[in-house]
């Protein structure tokens, strides 16, 4: 302890992990906080921190009878979503970041960041949050330590991950490697300077050093920019770890489906941000006899099991879900979980009785609200009451339908993988891939119209491979090769079937071609029946789509012709699509796996044969 005595800020450090102590000291020297606080993760600590956040005006305490132990936060209007333009993968070589990422040389970026972080925590507390993504008792637990000057981040990380003393003790006892994840709001306080409710900096930098496995995030307090265990670690850094260690880190939900015959199936699904993962994960089936339970709603780690099966786990402990559109009608399971409290809402509207509201929560629109920017709001207002990317942050354990397998470090064997996006046209409701590699092709060419989950224009069509475009921590072509190489180690008979889905196709009248939400269980049923060799399909050049009569429409006001329309493969639309896919693949240059180019050639040939 002799060394520690020279570090007054670290005197009471609850660890002897030399690497961790050295890093905490280095960061404290750089950022100059008023004090250092080691987060223990306890209930008592959470009460204290949230009390302080209420006093500071960052959190608004909600009506205890409506949402127990819950709070609302309202961000700076310029800090409402992930900032992809300011997100960087700083690998040693530019080539290793690939064409899908922003890149800067690590030394240059470090110099820039050191300048930004210098003194950035003045007047604030520096919180040290030990955390683990996935199970603490996993064979190879994935540890991280987030240093942040935001107590809102501490309270949110407590919901989203396992944090605190039990994690730190294991890091110390096993002298474990941890991902150093440094976060600052970039809003130091001069002596006597009053704070604002949502401190942040107009200059935002979300930076990853993949070889070092470290994260530096500056200037934002929001979601995926600031809760560094989530997108930054569990996807971007983890995808690099996964490449090196032979597994996959994916932007996927996991659900468990039980058939009327009581057989269990596990399904994962990759959809881009705000394209329906949380809703599908918490699905309330509208067909008799089929049951859904949840394992995860946003991130899935997959590896090949001992028998060559593909196994999946969810490394997160909470939901950070899109609020608008989440309602008693569309997603009652999410609403029940939220209603249990212990939640933090960001950028939703407040009701006059101290509850929260957002567009789509209830059919009836309240007569008066306070909108997310603090303005008085009535149904006549021309702006939405809640920000389109407003979020609820809720412990996953509050989901009544949480599958017990969520708690198993071994995870579950997948039977099906869905890839999906938000496409008004072209992409059928559901298409079964012709083969595993054809399914990887579908994933690699996945496309979607952009949403409010990231800063920038909404509704622009872009390719989003495996829904990982903003999250692949290395070269995108290498990432696709890795998918092929990992799965080549599986038992081919045990590999899941792959399906492409699109809940967002429109009819000629502009309506959704498919009711979606709970009715998506009908699509899952067809997928499972295909796995069991029981359901009819029609072969198209892009894959197999349900025959009109093959989708269970019991209780729906839809006809077989309606289904045929929803799964139509339109030659004209696909001619345009093929040109767009060619353009997309050209961007990969040499790094595109040959097997996928062959898939594209096959699709072109099948299309041409149809003309
Ligand atoms: N029409 C239609 N809309 C849907 C469906 N599923 C989800 N949505 C809407 O899509 C939006 C986003 O849904 P989420 O389930 O929160 O999306 P997500 O993929 O979990 O989003 P992230 O948390 O950003 O990754 C919400 O407004 C939903 O109401 C569906 O089946 N049909
Ligand atoms: O990361 C966030 O801020 C929210 C999220 O889940 C996503 O955008 O996919
Ligand atoms: Mn997400």
TrEMBL record:
Q: Which reaction does it catalyse?
A: oxaloacetate + GTP = phosphoenolpyruvate + GDP + CO2
Which parts pass through the membrane? none
Keyword rRNA processing (UniProt): no
Q: Which residues bind GTP?
A: 274-279, 391, 422, 517-520
Return the broad EC class.
lyase
Cellular localization per UniProt: Cytoplasm
The EC number on file is 4.1.1.32
Q: Where is the Phosphoenolpyruvate carboxykinase GTP-utilising N-terminal domain?
A: 23-243
Q: Where's the active site on this chain?
A: 275
> Which branch of life, at top level?
Bacteria
Q: Which UniProt keywords apply?
A: Cytoplasm, Decarboxylase, Gluconeogenesis, GTP-binding, Lyase, Manganese, Metal-binding, Nucleotide-binding
Pathway annotation: Carbohydrate biosynthesis; gluconeogenesis
Query: Where in this chain does the record put each Phosphoenolpyruvate carboxykinase C-terminal P-loop domain?
Result: 247-606
The cofactors required by this protein are: Mn(2+)
Q: InterPro entries in the record, alphabetically?
A: PEP_carboxykin_GTP_CS, PEP_carboxykinase_C, PEP_carboxykinase_GTP, PEP_carboxykinase_GTP_C, PEP_carboxykinase_GTP_N, PEP_carboxykinase_N
Residues holding Mn(2+)? 231, 251, 298
S-adenosyl-L-methionine as UniProt keyword: no
In which residues is substrate bound?
A: 82, 222-224, 273, 389-391
UniProt remark on cofactor binding: Binds 1 Mn(2+) ion per subunit.
Predominantly, its location class is cytoplasm
Q: Which PANTHER family match?
A: PHOSPHOENOLPYRUVATE CARBOXYKINASE, PHOSPHOENOLPYRUVATE CARBOXYKINASE [GTP]-RELATED
Similarity annotation: Belongs to the phosphoenolpyruvate carboxykinase [GTP] family.
Complexes and interactors:
Monomer.
Report the protein's function.
Catalyzes the conversion of oxaloacetate (OAA) to phosphoenolpyruvate (PEP), the rate-limiting step in the metabolic pathway that produces glucose from lactate and other precursors derived from the citric acid cycle.
Name the record gives this protein: Phosphoenolpyruvate carboxykinase [GTP]
| Naturally occurring in which organism (per UniProt) | Arthrobacter humicola
């Amino acid at each position: 302890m002799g060394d520690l005595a020279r570090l007054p800020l670290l005197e009471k450090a609850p660890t002897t992990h030399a690497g961790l102590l050295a890093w905490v000291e280095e960061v404290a020297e750089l950022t100059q906080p008023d004090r250092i606080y080691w987060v223990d993760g306890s209930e008592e600590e959470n009460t204290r921190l949230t009390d302080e956040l209420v006093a500071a005006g960052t959190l608004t305490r909600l009506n205890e009878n409506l949402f127990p132990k819950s709070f609302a936060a309202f961000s700076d209007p310029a800090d409402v979503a992930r900032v992809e333009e300011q997100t960087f993968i700083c690998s040693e070589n530019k080539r290793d970041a690939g064409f899908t990422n922003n890149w800067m040389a690590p030394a240059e970026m470090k110099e820039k960041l050191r300048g930004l972080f210098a003194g950035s925590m003045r007047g604030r507390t520096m919180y040290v949050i030990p955390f683990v993504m996935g199970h603490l008792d996993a064979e190879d637990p994935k540890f991280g330590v987030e240093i942040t000057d935001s107590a809102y981040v501490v309270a949110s990380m407590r919901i989203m991950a396992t944090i605190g003393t039990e994690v730190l003790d294991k890091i110390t006892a096993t002298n474990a490697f941890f991902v150093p994840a440094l976060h600052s709001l970039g809003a130091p306080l001069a002596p006597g300077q009053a704070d604002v409710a949502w401190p942040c900096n107009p200059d935002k930098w979300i930076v990853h050093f993949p070889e070092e496995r470290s994260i530096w995030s500056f200037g934002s307090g929001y979601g995926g920019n600031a809760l560094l265990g989530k997108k930054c670690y569990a996807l971007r850094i983890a995808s690099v770890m996964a490449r090196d260690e032979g597994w996959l880190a994916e932007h996927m939900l996991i659900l468990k489906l039980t058939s009327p015959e009581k057989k269990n199936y596990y399904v994962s699904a990759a959809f881009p941000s705000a394209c329906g993962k949380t809703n599908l994960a918490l699905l309330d089936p509208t067909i008799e006899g089929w049951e859904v339970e949840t394992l995860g709603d946003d991130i899935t780690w997959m590896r090949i099991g001992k028998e060559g099966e593909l196994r999946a786990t969810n490394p997160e402990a909470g939901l950070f879900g899109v609020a608008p559109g989440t309602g008693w009608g569309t997603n009652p399971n999410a609403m029940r979980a939220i209603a249990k409290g212990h939640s933090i809402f960001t950028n939703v509207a407040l009701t006059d009785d101290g509850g929260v509201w957002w567009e789509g929560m209830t059919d009836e629109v309240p007569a008066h609200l306070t909108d997310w920017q603090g303005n008085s709001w009535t149904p006549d207002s021309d702006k939405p009451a809640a920000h389109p990317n407003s979020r609820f942050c809720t412990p996953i354990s509050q989901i009544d339908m949480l599958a017990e397998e969520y708690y198993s470090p071994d995870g579950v064997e997948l039977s099906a993988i869905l890839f999906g996006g938000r496409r008004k046209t072209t992409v059928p409701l559901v298409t079964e891939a012709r083969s595993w590699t054809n399914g990887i092709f579908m994933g690699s060419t996945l496309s979607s119209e952009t949403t409010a989950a990231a800063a920038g224009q909404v509704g622009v069509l872009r390719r989003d491979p495996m829904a990982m475009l903003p999250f692949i921590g290395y070269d995108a072509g290498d990432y696709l090769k890795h998918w092929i190489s990992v799965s080549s180690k599986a038992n081919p008979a045990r590999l899941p079937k792959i399906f492409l889905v699109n809940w967002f196709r429109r009819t000629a009248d502009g309506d959704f071609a498919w009711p979606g939400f709970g009715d998506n269980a009908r699509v899952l049923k067809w997928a499972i029946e295909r796995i069991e060799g029981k359901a009819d399909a029609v072969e198209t050049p892009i894959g197999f789509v349900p025959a009109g009569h093959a989708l269970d429409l019991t209780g729906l006001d839809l006809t077989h012709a309606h289904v045929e329309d929803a799964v139509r493969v339109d030659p004209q639309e696909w001619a345009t699509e093929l040109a767009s896919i060619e353009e997309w693949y050209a961007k990969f240059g040499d790094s595109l796996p040959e097997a996928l180019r062959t898939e594209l050639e096959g699709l072109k040939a099948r299309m041409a044969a149809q003309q």
